[in-house]
Design goal:
The protein is mainly β and 264 residues long. It is 2% helix and 38% strand. The protein has 2 domains: 1-155, Neuraminidase; 156-264, Neuraminidase (6 Propeller).
């Protein structure tokens, strides 16, 4: 309960929140709006929360933005909380932070784009930088309508990629060759007329469950083991059946209810 939550926002700021300040509630409770806990600005949203026990000198926070920029900063740079929050990454106009993760300096990094591409490179290709630095190019995007949709720091063998029209697949991380940062990457999934653009990517294990979320408010829960494992260039299989004019807008890995239920 004395751990610190580092809350990173779309505007590149970081806020501190002690775990004991987060209200405890049942799984079905609505909870409190995050704006009641943090001094967020208008249109600012929290998109990554990292629980921290100690601000170790040999750990880093790795960042990725929608325009393909990446940066890593020593975790210790975030050890002194300020109530109004501070800049964690300098953002250019029209750019926003899409994700952050903790690394040890020797991880592989994967970025997935809306155009269905993915790049895998060594974290060591990115030197440590200060908080306000803007970072360096992680992936070369296909155009103004392309964007990075996900940052992954692989610790699973498989990654699940999904598209706007409800299709997707699991693919082995090793199917993506390691290359230098800043390239266009490789095909992760076909963004055909049937599939639409990519909307998300998650590391998954066979025992995980996934919740798919549609623009119409439909939630579909499925086990990861039911989703086919296919090669990089495959189009994938149907993940969720969407209503007319609806689209897949998100997916999240969730804990199995069976694991959380007490034994009878």
């Amino acid at each position: 309960s004395h751990d610190t939550l580092l809350c990173f926002s779309s505007r590149g700021k970081v806020y501190w929140l002690k775990v004991y300040r987060v209200p405890q509630a049942s799984p079905g409770a609505r909870g409190r709006p995050i704006v009641n806990l943090l001094p967020l600005e208008q249109d600012e949203r929290i998109n990554t929360v990292l629980p921290i026990s100690e601000f170790e000198d040999d750990r880093y926070v790795f960042f990725a933005t929608s325009r393909g920029t990446v940066k890593k900063t020593p975790l210790s740079a975030f050890s002194r909380p300020l109530a109004p929050g501070i800049i964690a990454v300098g953002l250019r106009e029209s750019d926003h932070l899409i994700g952050a993760g903790i690394t040890d300096g020797n991880k592989d990094i994967m970025l997935f784009s809306r155009s269905g591409k993915a790049i895998r490179f060594r974290e060591s290709d990115v030197r440590p930088m200060g908080r306000t630095a803007a970072g360096v190019r992680g992936i070369r995007l296909g155009g103004d309508d392309d964007a990075v949709i996900e940052l992954c720091i692989p610790d699973h063998e498989l990654v699940l990629v999904a598209t706007e029209n409800g299709y997707g697949k699991r693919t082995a991380v090793d199917a993506f060759p390691v290359q230098k940062r800043g390239g266009q990457g490789n095909i992760a999934i076909q963004t055909s007329e049937r599939n639409g653009p990519a909307v998300g990517a998650l590391q998954v294990g066979d025992d995980d469950e996934i919740m798919f979320i549609s623009s119409g408010g439909t939630l579909v829960r499925t086990t990861v083991s039911e989703i086919s494992v296919l090669g990089r260039i495959a189009q994938g299989v149907r993940l969720i059946r969407l209503d007319e004019d609806a689209r897949l807008v998100g997916m999240e890995r969730i804990e199995s209810l069976q694991e959380s239920l007490p034994a009878e």
